[in-house]
Amino acid sequence: MEFSNLIFYAFSIVLLFSGVMVVTSRNPVHAVLFLVLAFCTAGAIWMLLHAEFLAIAIVVVYVGAVMVLFLFVVMLLDINIDRLREGFWRYLPLGLLVAVLVVFQMAVVLRGDYFQLESLAPPTAPAANASNTQELARELFTHYAYPFELASMILLVAMVAAVMLTLRRRENSRFNNPVDQVRVKRADRVRMVSMPTERDEPAAPADAGDAPPAEPK
Amino acid sequence: MMQEFIQPVADLFGPVWPLVWTLAKIVGIVAPIFVCVAYLTLAERKIIGFIQVRVGPNRTGPLGLLQPIADGLKLLFKEVILPSQASSVLYYLAPVAVLAPALFAWAVIPFSEGWVLADINAGVLYLMAVTSISIYGVIIAGWASNSKYAFLGAMRSAAQMVSYELGMGFALVCVLMVAGSLNLSDIVRSQGTGTFASMGLGFLSWNWLPLLPMFIVYLASGFAETQRAPFDVVEGESEIVAGHMIEYSGMAFALFFLGEYANMILVAALTSVLFLGGWLSPVGFLPDSFLWLALKISFILFLFLWVRATFPRFRYDQIMRLGWKVFIPLCLFWVLVTGVWIMSPLSIWK
Q1: How far apart are CA B197 and CA B204, in angstroms?
Q2: A24 interface with B at CB cutoff 8 Å
Q3: How far apart are CA A21 and CA A175, in angstroms?
Q4: Per-residue pLDDT tens for A81-117?
């Protein structure tokens, strides 16, 4: 067996194990961390296919950004694990149906002759110094320029919509303008007063402030 | 010459030699980093002492040079306490998850012409991936400690790191647009070419000058990413005591400490490689050498300590404002400017 096959099987075992643990682990935080492991392992398997850009992008995007926010949400929400497990048997048939459909679709694409995968020429091995990123960028900005722009517009619209849906202006929230704060001069805050330390006239009679009250209340 | 000494050893190991040789190189990179980390802590105390007109540690060994070793031994012999109700596996995993990414990144850093462990095409991407996973250690530490202070610290830290990663990423985009490559060695080499380099004034053609706003953004984001002053609300000694590592003691705490300083050295090394010309010599008549890189890293590290001794801590909302409302629009604008500049006849990179 080739060494890269060995690595592939090792990563596959880790990937499957972490996938199962995502679903079965009792603690939601552990589940999210297993999902992180699954993403990293998937990235490593893509790396074996010489897809280094995608392999690193999945780590940057999913592990570095998406899962961090996910972890936040899971940690901050008070999730009752027993309530989540209540509907397990009720949802099982539906889940199994979806699983069977997914497997069926994959089998049609990978095994069937509808797409004639057998007749395609096997991909040629990339040159030793080929840059995956450059190739991808060239395709994306020449052949697929319009679909790429369209996808980015859809993402932008979704982002604006998400912000507008969750934005609520609070009437009583206070805001300091940092520009004003930086521009402040000493004269705006402090007033220097020149006055003698002691007064010449005798102090007021001591009945107001410092005399103890005559009788306790 | 080197080959003659290595060849008999290589024959001894036979087919596993590449593995052994790579491991030897990894040890050759990691061991000096740990020595640097140890003496960076001493340098920090000495330099801040100097700035504040104090002496600093001077009793352990000559000039206090054995102080880091004494500190290390003390931490090693202390008991590691596991808080009750803590999630024990994650609790012990967190310090490792903080330290390890700070060491992963050194795989792609070129120390001199050809002196790099993994000379990969996607070097900058790899760096972004590796630095983005270091946040997990902090979050896990905050959550697994089962303590409110630790959790608050972890939340602050995570929000801060996510915000400043974007600015850092855009600064990197500008650098790789100018260099035309994701390979760190190529980025350094590209800084050695251009109008000023051919005049013998190499330091003017390094990226820091043409990309000055990005250099500042990268350096400030580096301070924020490593959670050093003035962005140290995570530790915030006067408010939340020590942030995510409050419950840790002994060697577990020491690993967090090592991770923080290893990250500082990493950011300094990256700034030197991306913006200050790596191993290139500043002027034409001096040879390029690893020593230049060491000098540049030391200068950035000194900057870290200088800033810590000089500036007060940012308020939290101002940290967020700086990251999202100042750095990101500036970066987006400068990406555009750089693109137009490269394509215009005024380009200095051709």
Answers
A1: 7
A2: no
A3: 46
A4: 667 667 778 888 998 999 999 999 888 877 766 667 6
